[in-house]
Amino acid sequence: MLAFVRINDDDGLLQRFSKLFSEYINIELPINYFRQGDTYFVYNKLDDTIVGGYTIIYLPPFRFMRLLPKQADFAQNFLKEQPLNDLYEVNGFFIKNPAFKVKIFEKLASDSLKLNRKNLLLFYDLDNIKLHYTWQKKLQPVQLYTGEPNTEYGNLQSHKNIYFGYVSREKIIKFLAQLKSDSDWNF
Predict the structure, then answer these.
(1) Assign residue 58 a region: left if phi > 0, alpha if psi is -120 to 50, beta otherwise?
(2) Whole-model pTM?
(3) Contact 144, 166 (CB under 8 A)
(4) Which residue, 40, 52, 103, 148, is most buried by CB atoms nearer than 10 A?
(5) Is residue 6 within 8 Å of residue 40, measured between CB atoms?
(6) What is the domain-level CATH number for residue 112?
């Protein structure tokens, strides 16, 4: 049994979340960033351990947009054409116990749909094979950019080659419908 606990109002838990997530990407995000949306710890109720977490960011400025280099024309043009209230991003996503991955993805997708926004912005390090497999195979995003990130923004020591794309609301609805019957979750 899992508990999804929104932690936005607790600085100590947000700091802990940032530290736990930094173990996966080697970058500690500021807790103010997590307040731009909803941040969740996922607990196993049986032993009260943290088994995962995620943040859905729906208030700009979006971190991913700042990581795009100026020469990423196609992606920059896409973003200029989109009203900001139609976009959101998922960040801080991690799963410590793979036994719960389907339930965590199910809740993340469900929470995403509650926003009633058109496009989920995805950004990740292409060298992270598990994340690449998860997002590409399961959500099949539309690619907007691959290459080096904007190095003028923040410390990106662990991100040498990034992927930036988006997933439509319709694809997330389809993903959620297929999630329970899909047995191909080996990552």
Answers:
(1) alpha
(2) 0.87
(3) yes
(4) 52
(5) yes
(6) 3.40.630
